[in-house]
Write the C-alpha cells for this entry.
Amino acid sequence: MSLTRQEAENKMKKTVKNLADEFVTLRTGRASSALVERVVVEAYGSKSPLNQVANISVPEARLVVIQPWDKSLLGDIEKALMASDIGITPANDGKVIRLNFPPLTEDRRKELVKQAKALAENNRVAIRNIRRDALEAIKKEQKDGKLTEDEAKKATEDLQKLTDHYIKEIDKIAQEKEKEIMEV
C-alpha cells in the first residue's frame, strides 16, 4: 500500500501541528515571543533565528524585549525586525530592543480573523488531500487483490472517521484563535 492508515494519520497530525505553529505567529492583542522567534538575523556571516542570538522576553502584555547576547548584534537584529512582516517599529536603546504592540483596531482584528480562516481552510484541504491519496491506495490494493471488498469498505470508513476527527481538530484550533484575536 502506498499510503497506509498509520502514514495518513501521521500526516494529518503533522498538518494539525503545522496549523497550530502557524497560528502562534499570527498576532493577537497580546505580545508574544513567538511573533519574533522566527525572524532571521544576519550574525557572524550566517543567518540565525532571533531566539539563537538573543533573549526574548514579554514583561508586559503589549511589550516584547529582545536582549542580544552580543551587544554588537543590536543593529543587525533591528534591521532584521524592520525587514520582517511583524509591522512593529523596534525601539533600540543601545542595550535592548523593545517592541511595543499597540492595541489592535477592529478592522485589523477582522483582517486577522480572515487570515486565520484562510490558514485553517488550507490545512483542511491538506487533510482532504491526504485522505484522497489514502483512498487511491486502498482502491489500488483492492484492484490488485490484496484487499477484499469488505476490507476496502472498512478501511475507507476508518479513513473517513480519521479525516473527520482531524478536520474537527482544525476547526477547534481555528475557533480558539478567532476568539483570541477578537478579545479586546
The longest helix spans residues 106-143. Residues 138 and 144 are 10 Å apart (CA to CA).
